[in-house]
Design goal:
CATH topology: Rossmann fold
Distance between the termini: 8 Å
Structural class: alpha/beta
Radius of gyration: 17 Å
CATH architecture: 3-Layer(aba) Sandwich
Number of strands: 8
CATH class: Alpha Beta
Number of helices: 9
Shape: globular
Oligomer: single chain
Largest sheet: 5 strands, parallel
Number of domains: 1
Length: about 220
């Protein structure tokens, strides 16, 4: 059976992480959260006291840093930053870092190498449009603004519980604006992606929809 490349894109709070991880587990594929890579670079820049708006310096940092994604852990230059990168401070810094063409060039190259041979579920904001425009399956997850803010507020991995929903909603709105207006690889749905609105849908139902699309693609290939 052909090992597929599955691209899952969408804005913050749409459910990409949960759905991508679950689908990868079902298929016994590798799961890659590309957002964690940008967060790790942002964390490293702050750790090394590099201004997150200094593109030459941050781009060079992204190029030389060793980033590992393993069993849910995120390491950069052997520092386990799994928890440290899920904070409001890193949310903001990562948004800035992700706008930089030099950083995106460095990380996209690595992401493509990760998928050699297929068997991967990769989530992010430009997977189906830039990283893998010929991905076997392309999904774009979305949800209402209220739903995404509620999810993020209740997600301890993002320290959302420390802020009210209005503050979380404002943060998500700012990230959406940054992602959709940036020059380098803006957040947009690929023309051949399948849109799934996850508002009010239980996780198993969304996973089943994605798996149905995967199975359909496998049948066409056989």
């Amino acid at each position: 059976m052909k090992r597929l490349i599955i691209a899952i894109d969408g804005p913050s709070g749409a459910g990409k992480g949960t759905i991508a991880r679950t689908v990868a587990e079902r298929l016994r594929y590798r799961h890659v959260d590309t957002g964690a890579m940008y967060r790790a670079v942002a964390w490293k820049a702050l750790h090394d006291r590099i201004a997150v708006d200094d593109e030459p310096a941050v781009g060079a940092l992204a190029q030389r840093s060793n980033i590992e994604l393993d069993a849910g852990r995120v390491l950069i230059d052997r520092h386990d930053v799994t928890k440290e990168i899920r904070t409001p401070e890193i949310d903001k810094a990562a948004s800035s870092v992700a706008r930089m063409p030099r950083v995106r060039e460095a990380l996209v190259s690595r992401q493509r190498r990760m998928a050699e041979g297929g068997g991967i579920v990769m989530e992010g904001r430009d997977i189906g449009t830039v990283v893998f425009p010929t991905a076997d399956v392309k999904i774009y997850l979305d949800a209402s603004a209220d739903e995404r803010a509620r999810r993020r507020m209740n997600d301890p991995a993002h320290s959302g519980g420390q802020a009210g929903q209005a503050a979380v909603a404002a943060s998500i709105e700012a990230r959406d604006r940054s992602d959709t207006t940036r020059t380098a690889s803006p957040l947009t749905m690929a023309a051949d992606a399948v849109l799934i609105d996850t508002t009010g849908l239980p996780i198993p139902q969304v996973v089943d929809r994605v798996m149905a699309l995967v199975n359909e693609r496998v049948q066409r290939s056989s």
